[in-house]
Amino acid sequence: MKTTPAILVRDASDKELPAVQSIYAHHVLHGLATFEEVPPDIVEMAKRRQAILDLGLPYLVAEADGRVVGYAHAVPYRARPAYRNSIENTVYVTDGMDGRGVGSGLLGQLIARCEAGPWRQMLAVIGDSGNTASIALHRRFGFRPVGTLEAVGFKFGRWVDTVLMQRSLGAGSATPPDMAT
Questions:
Q1: Three-state secondary-structure class, residue 106
Q2: What is residue 118's three-state secondary structure?
Q3: For a Cys staple, 124 with which of 41, 43, 70, 165, CB 3.0–4.6 Å?
């Protein structure tokens, strides 16, 4: 019987950027979860990570048997000030590690970290309406579908949908946000 290694989710550091870049590059080149077509290099990935950290948002990695097997982070949903309490999540898992709890560990920890902050809504913008694994993962964590943008991307010679899912964080919309944030 094959055992699944324990998954440790923790803050990412600069030393994990090569692994993170490799995971993302695979998805850029072979998947529809992202609409990027050219993988960003490590310098660009470092800039993106730093911008996320500068906003006080989490950037996490999942580790199994001493190697990085996934990563997750949150970014502002939109730049305009009225959106300041809404964030978008990102979760990527190493090819071949699907179904082993990596995505669940990352998304669960990401939600918990974001609920400790001022954010009230988390959005998932899922590339490809056929991405059943990501849709199921988000459903398990309380996200509900709020719409599908049909044929908004064109990658690998075909039109691709984007599925929008949403969940409240903390008090959600039950109370006004702290206007100091």
A1: helix
A2: coil
A3: 165
Q: How far apart are CA 169 and CA 173, in angstroms?
A: 9
CA 60 distance to own-chain centroid: 10
d(CA 168, CA 181): 17
DSSP category for residue 174? S
* C-beta separation of 3 from 58 below 8 A: no
- 0.90 exceeded by the pTM? yes
pLDDT tens-digit series, residues 104-136: 999 999 999 999 999 999 999 999 999 999 999
- The tally of CA atoms less than 13 A away on the side-chain side of residue 141 is 26
Rounded Cα distance, 116 and 41, in Å: 31
Helix or strand (DSSP H, E) at 50: helix 42-54
- Rounded Cα distance between 15 and 153, Å, is 33
Task: Please answer whether residues 109 and 11 qualify as being in contact, where contact means their C-beta atoms are separated by less than 8 angstroms.
Answer: no
